[in-house]
Write a structure and sequence with these properties.
Number of strands: 6
Radius of gyration: 15 Å
Shape: globular
Largest sheet: 6 strands, mixed
Order of helices and strands: EEHEHHHEHEHHEH
Structural class: alpha/beta
Length: 185
């Protein structure tokens, strides 16, 4: 189901930048759907979590444990700012990227799609043993807490909301293309 998240007009879009920006909680399918979208649009895919890992030279979980969440968030803000300036394909942001006010400002007027799912689907997809530092203790309760905190921020930046629960990535990608009225260049 696609939900228009607010009044946006194609004329409000910045002239340059990603064709699609995906936001949403961890495990919702941003990377999988993003890669499919990029393939269908004959463009490149970029994931800001991968950019952070490349910059830091270690996995996200290690950044959290070694330097702390604040350091990770600083790297994330920079990765988002750089990607929004340099990348013109499909961009996926880390689950917590929207927490930064400056990131939300940078996303204003862009083709942002919020991917959602319920807690049961989230736990199934992320797994209880996955290396996700924010879900290390009581994943269901932590996921709910994160969504209570982040959902208003996701909604603030999103032009379109797509529920991924019980749906395949191909179906979700097609819905996004239709909602944003995108086609191959």
């Amino acid at each position: 189901m696609t939900v228009d998240a607010g009044p946006h007009d194609a004329r409000d879009l910045p002239p340059r930048g990603p064709r699609v920006v995906l936001v949403g909680p961890m495990g919702v399918g941003k990377t999988t759907v993003g890669r499919l979208l990029a393939e269908r649009l004959d463009t490149d895919f970029r994931d800001t979590d991968e950019d952070v890992v490349a910059t830091a030279g270690k996995p996200v979980a290690e950044i959290f444990f070694d330097e702390g969440e604040e350091h990770f968030r600083a790297l994330e803000r920079q990765a988002v700012a750089t990607a929004l300036t340099e990348h013109d394909g499909v961009l996926s942001l880390g689950g917590g990227a929207v927490m930064a006010e400056e990131t939300r400002r940078r996303l204003a007027g862009r083709p942002v799609v919020l991917l959602t799912m319920d807690v049961a689907e989230a736990v199934r997809r992320t797994g209880l043993d996955a290396p996700r530092p924010l879900l290390a203790v009581n994943p269901r309760q932590q996921w709910r807490r994160l969504m209570e905190e982040r959902l208003p921020l996701y909604t603030e930046v999103a032009r379109v909301v797509v529920d991924t629960g019980g749906r395949g990535p191909e179906e979700v990608a097609e819905e996004i293309l239709a909602a944003l009225e995108l086609s191959r260049p």
